[in-house]
Amino acid sequence: MVFLESAAAGHARGEDAMTDHQILEELLALLEGNAVTVRNEPLGGAGGGLCTVKGRPVFFHDTDASSSDAACACAEAVARTVDIESIYLRPEVRDFIEARTNRPH
User: Which band of pLDDT confidence, cut at 50, 70 and 90, is reported for residue 102?
Assistant: First the structure.
């Protein structure tokens, strides 16, 4: 499992809110830390998606997509493959996942 640094610690150091790119990086790391293979491929800008290859989960990160679109696709993959209720996530990352996957807060 991957545990991510608290947002409160970041704010205590004077850091601003997370950007879509930073959220995307955290989500990709979360997938990789939970046995999902991440492949970075130019796929035309749709954001990417999760599939199963030879019985193993693979997330295709669309390098042609904006960070926002890719983060949305990644959030959906995280919601399907990671029990986010059992791990600590930065509040911004948890809120991003919940807002984009219709999960209750």
Answer: confident
Q: Residue 1: inside a domain, yes or no? A: no
Decide: helix, strand or coil at residue 54. Answer: coil
Residue 46's contacts (CB-CB under 8 Å, 6 or more residues apart) are 62, 65, 69, 73
pLDDT tens profile 8-17: 444 444 456 8
What domain count does the chain have?
Answer: 1
12: Cβ–Cβ under 8 A, 6 or more apart, which residues?
Answer: none
What domain range is 46 assigned to?
7-101
Residue 97, H or E segment: helix 91-101
